[in-house]
Amino acid sequence: MKKQVCILGSTGSIGTQALDVIRQHADLFEVYCLTANDRYEELAAQAHAFRPAAIVIANEAHYQPLQQLMSDMPEVKVYAGKDALDQIVEADPIDIVLTAMVGFAGLSPTIHAIRARKKIALANKETLVVAGELICQLALQYHVDILPVDSEHCAIFQSLVGEDQNEIDKILLTCSGGPFRLCSHEQLERVTAADALKHPTWEMGAKITIDSATLMNKGFEVMEAKWLFGVPADRIQVLIHPQSIVHSAVQFMDGSVKAQLGVPDMRLPIQYALTFPKRLHLDGDRLDLFRQPLEFLEPDMSKFKCLSLAYDAINRGGNMPCILNAANEVVNAGFRRGDCSFLGMADVIEQTMAQATFDANPDYEVYIQTDAEARRIAAELMNGRQTTR
Ligand code: NAD
Ligand code: MG
Fold first, then answer.
1. Which atom of ligand 1 is nearest to the CA of 103?
2. Quick check: CB of 15 below 6 Å from ligand 1?
3. Closest CA to 76 of 106, 45, 120, 110
């Protein structure tokens, strides 16, 4: 029986690479459902190629034109809206839900998928940043496996295979350092979104590429590792590793360090999450360790303030990571539009963290309110800075 896969965010960087993996292993996987937010033409093209049972366009404005493009395939059901995402993940035939959509919007369908006992291949790290405790509780309650797609977490996960009884001493979380690793503070004052979108080692969606440039992405990944592997943040060390070859490592109590290495190619972690515990053939380059030395450096938290704000949010706990994430989504989009400077992003996030209502024991409803409040505060702060500039 082929595994039925639902891809949330199939038109994105992770989504299209996941389809590539599924195309190469069509004997093992079948696409049950594809979803997108705005790119309905691409979604329709994917539906023609993969013939899923259903597709969902989250932005309802595109429902009519999408339906028209699908009129020659009446067997594919077409739905629209956020609620449709929550419903489709519960469909009986689905075995695995790959959460490859971006941002806070991934939280609700992920919760629905867990409650419907679907295996989760998790790319949408914002879900764990915002509500890691709740997600872990639900996964335990519903006996659901969460398999990491993020390359670092896939590397940690691979390093932990066969180590069930053994305590982790330390996680070594690697980080390329992003495109501005060598910039001075003065240079950082002037960098633009176009500069930030030129990532040195990974090609990814726009939002995560900006998060990688500010190192907020690494802060998010510390939280992701904390929840996925149950290791406190003070035992997760971030190492700048510009070559992106060592994808992360685990140090055990006897001093042994196990790492996973490979060329930077997201199809590997996507495929591993889908096929675990099996390893299947994957086309592509192989690692040539003669070609380059491997460097490891300490991150500069004073230059990349977003990473230290992420540690602050972890230490405060409660809904603080949710506040951090919401403010970050606002400034990240603002920076891409040219409405916020590179260094302004961290300032707005810091002020939002100081102003938004803190809750030490949030539940789902609190996360929804917190997200809305923090977005409003961050937008006001960002727009205020713009008018006084
Ligand atoms: P992307 O921007 O390329 O694609 C995002 C996808 O989500 C698109 O299909 C889009 O239509 C959909 N989407 C966006 N907003 C939505 C909304 N509000 N409702 C429903 N659907 C929506 O992003 P990406 O780079 O593929 O990243 C996806 C997720 O995976 C992110 O959480 C990111 O942090 C994580 N991730 C990505 C990479 C990578 O290499 N791209 C690596 C690790 C983790
Ligand atoms: Mg990563």
1. 32
2. yes
3. 45
Chosen CATH of 317-389 out of 2.40.110.10, 3.20.20.70, 3.40.50.300, 1.10.1740.10: 1.10.1740.10
Please state the rounded mean pLDDT for residues 33-51.
Answer: 98
Atom of ligand 1 nearest to the CA of 204: 41
What residue ranges of the chain are covered by domains with CATH 3.40.50.720? 3-148
Compute the mean pLDDT over every residue in the chain, rounded to the nearest whole number. 97
Question: Does ligand 1 lie within 6 Å of residue 150's CB atom?
Answer: yes
Residues 305 and 346: their CA atoms lie apart, in Å, by 6
The finding on whether 210 has its CB within 6 A of some atom of ligand 1 is: no
125 CA closest ligand 1 atom index = 32
- Provide CATH 1.10.1740.10 ranges for the chain: 317-389
The domain defined by 3-148 folds into Rossmann fold (3.40.50)
User: 253 in helix, strand or coil?
Assistant: coil
**What global pTM score does this model have?**
0.97
CB atoms within 10 A of CB 302: 9
CA-proximal residue: ligand 1, atom 21 (nearest): 37
